[in-house]
Amino acid sequence: MPLHKELERLKALDDPKVRGYQFEPFVGSLFAAAHFEVTPSPGAGGSRQVDLIATRGDDAYLIEAKWWSRRVGVAEVQALEDRLKRTPASVIGVLVSYSGFTQGAIDRVEGKPKRSVLLVTGEELERSISWDGDFLRMLRQKRDSMLVHSKTVFMSNRPRTARRRRGKLLPSTPEAIVLRDGTRSPWLKFGGDFGQFAFAREVVDIDWVSGSGLGVSLDVSTVSTDQDGLLALLHDLSDLGWLTEKSRWSIQQAADNWHGAGADNFAAVLSDWETRYEGVEDLHHTEEFCYLDVCDDFGFYTLTGQVAAREPRVVWRASLSFQLSGIPLDPSPLRHLCERLDTRSTLFFRPRSSESVQRHHVDRGDGVLLDVVGFIVEDNELEEGRDDREWAIGVVARNPFRRSAAGQDRIPGWWPDMVADSELIVCSLRSWHPLRKPKKTYRLWSCEEAWTSDALVFNPVADWDDDSDIAGYTSLIRPSRSPNNPAK
Question: What is the pTM of this model?
């Protein structure tokens, strides 16, 4: 607010010369507020004085500020370019003009990509000190645009929401779902309630390191405002290497849930909402989603939010929550991600206050038998025989502790309350077996769960009692041509 008030004071001045003279330290204060070391009128530009130079780490900017009644033209750009020639190659020029720039000035800047000059207008200054953005992020966007595209980008003409790029594929999953009747589907629909959680292949224990202490969290709010923006966010995550084939996801409505694996399937199911809603009787005006993925070597994250259940598909509170083993010695991948996603707030690594993963081993005497309705399978390319290549790595079973069936008094304390409304559960198998050799009896072996700042990550683990196969149960290895089918 002090910067905003100072700008309003400058706008109210009657003497344009005084205003122009005082505009220089105002621009300097913007850089100083972004933690730059600012030096007025340095000698870096040669015999002619330069308004400001600002440095922060490896970043260095040579700055000239103009508050004229007319737009700044080619001559002023050329003058700044001449002074840049006398500075190290890493220094970037910044020309601030409250009244804007002529098209000739813009063309000149875009035609000289070897020494970047960033153009900043008065409108952008006002927006960068308001709730809409911040000055440092604006500079980085301009710098990246010049570096990659040799184009000047202004906040007034930059699209508010990035659009999905056509033809760009998201990572797929090696998993498939095979139901008891042989039906194959990339995802499942079954009864449930609201609650942002996902069934995990495994829960990464970020506390399992040689040193003492607990992991850290990093929460990132995104600027996704609609479904297209959310899909563009997925593509950005994919471009930067944050999506893997180990992802799981869920979408929740008032009485129906969709669960699956793979970023490509998540994007497809999210987009095909009108088809998903066919036959859904209890339809809330909003649906929730939870996308879960792993960070190679050091943790996992969830992407959660809410989407309107009708056009326009408005998105609320879409945020990323990273759970990491510690603060990385090289945080540049995370910093790059935050810059790419145009985050709107200062971000912090926050130490967790409790252990990341909670585990419960189910006593065999408890006799928690599972009513298995399907299998999670993967293709094992190491097997030579065709019939042995598909292995069951998990099972889909009816929830033994569903609230409506078991009653609240029969739900054990170690069973997550958020999962109690789910009709089915997706379990990892402790011991895998060929799909064509299903077992007679499967039991709940253990459960492990972890929380991000917004979602539950849950992995129930099942095992089988013996080596006896179900005689004649071979239809599972024959692919079905049936469409996606609910497990009900």
Answer: 0.75
